[in-house]
């Protein structure tokens, strides 16, 4: 499996940064942002090497879906297998690229079904040097939420980076099946900001602080596909506002059956900030309808 990449080798020595988009085929802002970065980066102004893979999961993108035809979520398939299914082979190929990088950024969005508040995340790495590098990268990226989560999560691109000791962050920006222009802008700026931090580019540091800085090492923290599972199949209509505070038990939205005779109010199981909302109305039982960021875990760092 060969992954199509843009390689920008700088005139000066420096670190090697890998940036990926399209691990999920229906997440579009990262793909546009990385192509724009590829056109914008000038080797003469770069110290080090940047590798951009705008569409990691091309088979999924071509289907217009989150996953390739084997149905495996690529972000649960790492490190994959060289002789496996299409998703396993993609995971295997990307794992090699991640292990050979000095730093890694993986750009996502909520895809077709979810809309996610702009955030930068990382795993709370057991090695302090790696954890601190990730914190600095996440803050430098410049999005309003910085979220450090469970370091034990398996199967992700960041799990490969964790095992290899490569400092890595990921980002989310809206989604809902759209390619948001503000998301593209924010991703281009965020990647350039991290390049400045790492010494790949001469660029002033980001002055803004994130609105929320949350480090939460409870098991399974960081899951964006598990919150508020739908109790039945149905039509979901959210009523909560993305990014806004929400109280315990406050309504997130309603789930109705075909005739509207059964209507279930979905209520917040935690208090915090509405981090992700299901915006694609067709829902199967068990699908995640919302994720709440528990800002009680916020601490000043
Ligand atoms: Zn994704």
Index terms:
single chain; 301 residues; alpha/beta; eleven-stranded mixed sheet; four-stranded antiparallel sheet; 6 helices; globular; binds zinc ion
Structure explained in plain terms:
By secondary structure, this protein is α/β, with parallel strands linked by helices. It has helices at residues 29-40, 58-63, 86-99, 128-141, 157-164, 181-198; strands spanning 6-9, 12-20, 47-53, 103-107, 114-123, 145-149, 168-175, 212-215, 234-238, 245-246, 251-256, 263-267, 272-278, 282-283, 290-293. The longest helix is centred in the middle third of the chain and has 18 residues, at 181-198. The termini are far apart. Bound molecules: zinc ion. Zinc ion (ZN) is lined by residues 23-24, 27, 75, 108, 111.
Concise summary:
The chain has 301 residues and is of the alpha/beta class.
- The count of β-strands is 15
Q: State the order of secondary-structure elements, H for helix, E for strand.
A: EEHEHHEEHEHEHEEEEEEEE
The major beta sheet can be summarized as: 11 strands, mixed
Distance between the ends: 42 Å
Please give the share of residues in helix: 10-25%
What is the beta-strand fraction?
25-35%
Radius of gyration: 19 Å
Poorly predicted ranges (pLDDT <50, ≥5 residues)? Answer: none
Bound molecules: zinc ion
Which class do the helix and strand fractions yield?
alpha/beta
- Overall spatial form: globular
> Helix count, per DSSP?
6
What's the pLDDT, averaged over the residues? 95
